[in-house]
């Protein structure tokens, strides 16, 4: 009776036939001794067929199936193609050795190929694994490791739900590029002005904007050719007919020297370059805005895309930003002043990059520090929601923004702002309403998680909490709040299966599951 | 107040910010010893996190008895490994730059025994760690990848480290680290079921297990039966309280050793790691060793 062995590797499936070893005996000791010697093993086990995976995606599907113990179509066709046919009614004259019995039962159900996974088979597979690169002639020594590496990375990424769209590195690079571009455009524009002023000096004083200057200079070309006919065109560019007339007048009485056509062409090309760069900068800015709304929508809704992106790039990544306490976030960007003040025991700075958001400017001098602190706290919340929650919603960010506005009003007029508990409740209600309008209502678990949410809020207030968790640090509270927010966002995302057991779990075990989650998070 | 990781606002920043760019100035540890790492404000607190080396001192690096590991001698000795990816550090560890005769700098990273059980074992004086350049290692319980990175430094580009870690959060950090180091293969999967990741792992020379699970002996033996070559070696770290916190530590170690022996994992050395942590031990041994 023939015996085959299936070996799954990262580069493909291999089917090997076992000779020489007595099937009935199935002596594991004998296999072991033969394994150590490649030539002996090579006589015992021979490669029947090898089916390499078509693509990385195919390999990923196969590895997922193998880890679950499920047979894929490709595996099935590979086996049926290369193993002897199983005739109906007759007992098959061979058997297939596998590493996992679960997979074996699957294969048997579908194809009636008898499978076994005993110690004997495991020893054989050890031998195959050890000498695999010798069996497959096309594989060069490093190839197997490379395929393992690639496959392991994609498998692991799927496990941690790595989302390409939510890579915060793009934002960091975009912000750097934006800054560099600004500097470069500025220096080039200055250069254009100087260069063209050799020909037409008065234009500098009339047109102040760099971008417009470039356009105008490109359009005017040679100033001696300027006539009244050009007024409509100039008006279009400058937006002001008077200015256009000024330009024409100045052109007639200009002191500048004439330039040869070749020189003029050069200036024009350069001016065109500046315009192109400025256009690109605009596009880059739009790209940045879109990216921010992808990876950190709440932060962007709260303080704006530019400031948000700067904060993320300063901290190094969205996760770093979420990890740091809000007091750090408050003075991110003012480190020099901070450490100088700490060393000389002076006053530490009140705000860093946060200063550029609109709120600080609107507060009176006395309250700038307070608003800065308040804003930093809300930014911390927003960044944590963005980092750890699954959905991409700006609901929280907008509500947080409202809270800051209310706080500003309070300093202005003394209007008492709403309590944080209430604001957050509103957000959750809105999110759930959206969910109910969707296909699957999640009333029961939603209500339960809402209760949990309400409980979470009470703790978030700096009031002494009634719960056992009052000893938790603020960060843990935030994270738990994020988890409950997560639960809600999960339910929002119509993953009813997950949220229902999740909701029930919470109310059953109460805080124990949450504590477990916290423990794993602090292990970071 | 802890300064943010990427120092871009100028100001006083030791280590990362300045040392990057490979300044070839003689030999130096990164500055500001106590600041990086825990960052307990401006006051300099001698924390355990710095691994024993002070900043700015003259350091001499010599190879350790174990291949691939080095010792940096200065006022306090430190264990270091040669950085596989110069310029990259995992989490704020210090680096030591040594200049060669031909003016090229070699970068070493300090290995902290308080954070890594393997480093602890080496400083306690284990006979043989079996991990050396060119071997393949299966690392169960890789966590965020601190020790994995040092093992990857030791085995070098010819060797490889299969790092198995079950948790998502640590897994993400591990994967980031693995993206920079191509000899680390991250596997985010449960080590109790090696069948699930059998497609991703080849035959290894050494299994290193730091899972701290009551059934860790069984986990190790199952993985060994799949992936450890005959005559290969293993190291398992035992936290007595993880197995059974009610009985004495010595008894726990004995129990684990017996469980291992039943599965053809023959222990050759048992080390008590009491210098850095309590009730921890390390067992080194061989698998299917030939009978003498």
Automatic annotation (TrEMBL), chain A:
<dbReference type="InterPro" id="IPR002687">
    <property type="entry name" value="Nop_dom"/>
</dbReference>
<dbReference type="GO" id="GO:0032040">
    <property type="term" value="C:small-subunit processome"/>
</dbReference>
<feature type="region of interest" description="Disordered">
    <location>
        <begin position="432"/>
        <end position="524"/>
    </location>
</feature>
<dbReference type="GO" id="GO:0031428">
    <property type="term" value="C:box C/D methylation guide snoRNP complex"/>
</dbReference>
<dbReference type="InterPro" id="IPR012976">
    <property type="entry name" value="NOSIC"/>
</dbReference>
<dbReference type="InterPro" id="IPR012974">
    <property type="entry name" value="NOP58/56_N"/>
</dbReference>
<feature type="compositionally biased region" description="Acidic residues">
    <location>
        <begin position="457"/>
        <end position="466"/>
    </location>
</feature>
<feature type="compositionally biased region" description="Basic residues">
    <location>
        <begin position="513"/>
        <end position="524"/>
    </location>
</feature>
<feature type="domain" description="Nop">
    <location>
        <begin position="295"/>
        <end position="413"/>
    </location>
</feature>
<keyword id="KW-0690">Ribosome biogenesis</keyword>
<comment type="similarity">
    <text>Belongs to the NOP5/NOP56 family.</text>
</comment>
<dbReference type="Pfam" id="PF08156">
    <property type="entry name" value="NOP5NT"/>
</dbReference>
<dbReference type="InterPro" id="IPR045056">
    <property type="entry name" value="Nop56/Nop58"/>
</dbReference>
<feature type="compositionally biased region" description="Basic and acidic residues">
    <location>
        <begin position="432"/>
        <end position="446"/>
    </location>
</feature>
<keyword id="KW-0539">Nucleus</keyword>
<feature type="compositionally biased region" description="Basic and acidic residues">
    <location>
        <begin position="480"/>
        <end position="492"/>
    </location>
</feature>
<dbReference type="Pfam" id="PF01798">
    <property type="entry name" value="Nop"/>
</dbReference>
<dbReference type="GO" id="GO:0042254">
    <property type="term" value="P:ribosome biogenesis"/>
</dbReference>
<protein>
    <recommendedName>
        <fullName>Nucleolar protein 56</fullName>
    </recommendedName>
</protein>
<dbReference type="GO" id="GO:0030515">
    <property type="term" value="F:snoRNA binding"/>
</dbReference>
UniProtKB/TrEMBL annotation, chain B:
<dbReference type="GO" id="GO:0003723">
    <property type="term" value="F:RNA binding"/>
</dbReference>
<keyword id="KW-0687">Ribonucleoprotein</keyword>
<dbReference type="GO" id="GO:1990259">
    <property type="term" value="F:histone H2AQ104 methyltransferase activity"/>
</dbReference>
<keyword id="KW-0698">rRNA processing</keyword>
<dbReference type="InterPro" id="IPR029063">
    <property type="entry name" value="SAM-dependent_MTases_sf"/>
</dbReference>
<keyword id="KW-0489">Methyltransferase</keyword>
<dbReference type="GO" id="GO:0031428">
    <property type="term" value="C:box C/D methylation guide snoRNP complex"/>
</dbReference>
<dbReference type="InterPro" id="IPR000692">
    <property type="entry name" value="Fibrillarin"/>
</dbReference>
<feature type="compositionally biased region" description="Gly residues">
    <location>
        <begin position="7"/>
        <end position="42"/>
    </location>
</feature>
<feature type="region of interest" description="Disordered">
    <location>
        <begin position="1"/>
        <end position="58"/>
    </location>
</feature>
<dbReference type="GO" id="GO:0000494">
    <property type="term" value="P:box C/D sno(s)RNA 3'-end processing"/>
</dbReference>
<dbReference type="Pfam" id="PF01269">
    <property type="entry name" value="Fibrillarin"/>
</dbReference>
<dbReference type="GO" id="GO:0008649">
    <property type="term" value="F:rRNA methyltransferase activity"/>
</dbReference>
<keyword id="KW-0694">RNA-binding</keyword>
<comment type="similarity">
    <text>Belongs to the methyltransferase superfamily. Fibrillarin family.</text>
</comment>
<keyword id="KW-0808">Transferase</keyword>
<keyword id="KW-0949">S-adenosyl-L-methionine</keyword>
<keyword id="KW-0539">Nucleus</keyword>
<dbReference type="GO" id="GO:0032040">
    <property type="term" value="C:small-subunit processome"/>
</dbReference>
<protein>
    <submittedName>
        <fullName>Fibrillarin</fullName>
    </submittedName>
</protein>
């Amino acid at each position: 009776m023939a015996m085959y062995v299936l070996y799954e590797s990262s580069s493909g499936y291999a089917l090997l036939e076992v000779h020489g070893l007595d099937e009935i005996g199935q002596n594991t000791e004998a296999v072991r001794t033969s394994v150590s010697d490649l030539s002996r093993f090579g006589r015992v086990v021979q490669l029947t067929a090898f089916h390499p995976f078509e693509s990385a995606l195919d390999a990923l599907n196969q590895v997922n199936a193998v880890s679950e113990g499920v047979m894929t179509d490709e595996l099935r066709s590979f086996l049926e193609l290369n193993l002897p046919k199983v005739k109906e009614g007759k007992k098959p004259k061979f058997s297939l050795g596998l590493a996992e019995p679960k997979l074996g039962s699957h294969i048997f159900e579908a194809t009636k190929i008898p499978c076994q996974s005993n110690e004997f088979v495991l020893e054989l597979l050890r031998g195959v694994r050890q000498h695999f690169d010798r069996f497959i002639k096309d594989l060069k020594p490093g190839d197997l490791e490379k395929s393992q590496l690639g496959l392991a990375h994609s498998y692991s990424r799927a496990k941690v739900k790595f989302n390409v769209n939510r890579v915060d590195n793009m934002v960091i690079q975009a912000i750097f590029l934006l800054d560099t571009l600004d500097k470069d455009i500025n220096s080039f524009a200055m250069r254009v002005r100087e260069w063209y002023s050799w020909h037409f000096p008065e234009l500098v004083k009339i047109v102040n904007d760099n971008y417009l200057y470039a356009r105008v200079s490109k359009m005017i070309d040679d100033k001696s050719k300027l006539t009244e006919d050009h007024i409509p065109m100039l008006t279009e560019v400058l937006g002001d007919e008077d200015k256009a007339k000024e330009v024409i007048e100045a052109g007639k009485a200009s002191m500048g020297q004439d330039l040869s056509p070749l020189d003029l062409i050069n200036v024009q090309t350069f001016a065109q370059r500046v315009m192109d760069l400025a256009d690109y900068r605009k596009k880059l800015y739009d790209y940045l805005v879109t990216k921010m709304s992808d990876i950190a929508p709440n932060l962007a809704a709260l303080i704006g895309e530019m400031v948000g992106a700067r904060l993320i790039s300063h901290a190094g990544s969205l996760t770093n930003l979420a990890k740091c306490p809000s007091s750090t976030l408050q003075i991110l960007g003012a480190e020099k002043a901070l450490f100088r003040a700490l060393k000389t025991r002076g006053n530490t700075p009140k705000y860093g990059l946060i200063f550029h958001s609109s709120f600080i400017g609107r507060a009176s001098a006395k309250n700038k520090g307070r608003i800065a602190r308040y804003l930093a706290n809300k930014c911390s919340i927003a960044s944590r929601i963005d980092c750890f929650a699954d959905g991409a919603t700006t609901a929280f960010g907008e509500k947080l923004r409202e809270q800051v506005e209310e706080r500003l009003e309070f300093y202005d007029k003394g209007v008492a702002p709403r309590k944080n508990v209430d604001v957050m409740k509103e957000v959750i209600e809105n999110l759930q309403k959206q969910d109910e309008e969707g296909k699957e209502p999640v009333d029961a678990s939603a209500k339960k998680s809402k209760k949990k949410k309400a409980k979470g809020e009470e703790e978030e207030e700096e009031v002494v909490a009634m719960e056992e968790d009052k000893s938790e640090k603020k960060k843990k509270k935030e994270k738990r709040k994020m988890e409950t927010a997560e639960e809600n966002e999960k339910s929002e995302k119509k993953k009813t299966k997950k949220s229902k057991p999740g909701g029930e779990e919470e109310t059953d075990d109460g805080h124990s599951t949450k504590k477990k989650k916290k423990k794993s998070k602090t292990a970071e | 107040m802890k300064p943010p990781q990427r120092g871009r606002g100028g100001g006083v920043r030791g280590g990362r910010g300045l040392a990057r760019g490979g300044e070839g100035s003689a030999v130096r540890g990164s500055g500001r010893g106590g600041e990086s790492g825990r960052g307990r404000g401006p006051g300099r607190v001698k924390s355990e996190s710095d691994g024993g080396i002070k900043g700015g001192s003259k350091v001499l690096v010599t190879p350790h008895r174990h291949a691939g590991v080095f010792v940096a001698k200065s006022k306090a000795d430190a264990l270091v490994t040669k950085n596989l990816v110069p310029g990259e550090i995992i989490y704020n560890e210090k680096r030591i730059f040594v200049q060669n005769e031909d003016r090229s700098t070699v970068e070493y990273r300090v290995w902290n025994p308080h954070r890594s059980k393997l480093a602890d074992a080496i400083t306690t004086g284990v006979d043989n760690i079996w991990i050396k350049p060119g071997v393949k290692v299966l690392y169960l319980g890789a966590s965020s990848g601190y020790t994995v990175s040092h093992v990857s430094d030791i085995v070098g580009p010819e060797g490889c480290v299969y790092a198995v870690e079950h948790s998502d959060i640590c897994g993400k950090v591990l994967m980031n680290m693995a993206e920079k180091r191509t000899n680390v293969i991250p596997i985010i999967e449960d080590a109790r079921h090696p069948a699930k990741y059998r497609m991703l792992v080849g035959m290894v020379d050494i299994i290193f297990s730091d899972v701290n699970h009551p059934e860790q002996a069984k986990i190790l033996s199952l993985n060994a039966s799949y992936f450890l070559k005959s005559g290969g070696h293993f190291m398992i770290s035992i936290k007595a309280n993880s197995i059974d916190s009610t009985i004495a530590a010595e008894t726990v170690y004995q129990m684990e050793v017996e469980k291992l022996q039943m599965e053809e994992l023959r222990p050759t050395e048992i080390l008590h790691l009491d210098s850095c942590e309590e009730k921890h031990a390390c067992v080194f041994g061989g698998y299917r060793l030939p009978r003498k």
